[in-house]
Amino acid sequence: MQALDHQQRLFMVESDQIYRAWLDALHHARAYRYGMRWISSKGRQYLVRLHDAFGNGKSLGLRNAETEARFAAFQEGKVRAEARLASLAARMKEQARLNRALRLGRLPNVVGDILLGLAAARTAHDFCVVGTHAIHGFEAMAGVHCRMELLASGDVDLLYDPRRQLSLVARKLDGHGLLGLLRKVDPSFAPLRDTPFRAANDKGFMVDLVIPERDIRETEQVSFGQEDLVAVEVPNLHWLVNAPKHDVIAVAADGRPVMMRVPDPRAFALHKAWLSERPDREPVKKVRDRAQAVLIAQMIQSWLPALEFDPAQLRYFSAEMLRQAQAVLGEEPGLKLPGMSF
């Protein structure tokens, strides 16, 4: 691991600030996107506030001085919102240029595009990145860069908590589902025939929609629209879905700041350590799991010491799982984690 220098850390802080301001401006501007209009009915005009792309809306009353003032205020607000968004979009573009110059870009652009799409749809908090790409979020938290060979991955895993209300997320995605959002990023994304939880683009990059294993009585499919991806249940992901989450600003390869929700790095390290000992895990993945577990544990030890491995703070893990993970990490020379005795 290599620590970021002072200039890189400054740009990371500025990226965080600019991104959050830009996202707020984007959501504010999008509140105006369907607009208001006058509709005639039986010889009278009514002001209607539209709330979807299909022309559905709510009447605000007959045309009079009050509704005309309301319409004018709406139009003025829309102009101001669009101007603020354009200004911050220009700031984002300039910050991306600066980030590229200092080689801060780490996250593959396709992942950055997906995360930006989720954020624009107000669903960034509904999905958590739990696979290898989560390490980019941990890098941002710690202010370090890791060896790229441990970060390379041709897919991204999006974890959804099935306890959330599906209809709310489906509404945010305009009824087109997660697949519809992916196709806005890259029209070549398509579900794989035998794996309905997975979509791939024409470059072979894959997106998996995963949920923790549920009670056998829960049979409703987790999907956000017709012909959308259908989540696959993965055993033992309940540890990650119940772990605390962090919303961090990472930097895509082209320099753009993007927000990603990741599990607590302690949960990631312990889960990867546990996976590396599973007898049903593919051998090639077990080696990588262990290396990533040690990497994040070392990162926490050196750069995030406030995150103690206190069992009282890790109650979402079983005692047996903690024991197995501790045995794996305890074999690493020099690794001493606060709260756990190796």
From TrEMBL:
Q: Which Pfam families match?
A: NTP_transf_8
Q: Which InterPro entries match?
A: NTP_transf_8_dom (IPR058575)
**Domain of life, per lineage:** Bacteria
Q: Where is the Nucleotidyltransferase-like domain?
A: 110-311
User: What's the protein here called?
Assistant: Nucleotidyltransferase-like domain-containing protein
Tell me what organism the protein belongs to.
Answer: Thauera linaloolentis (strain DSM 12138 / JCM 21573 / CCUG 41526 / CIP 105981 / IAM 15112 / NBRC 102519 / 47Lol)
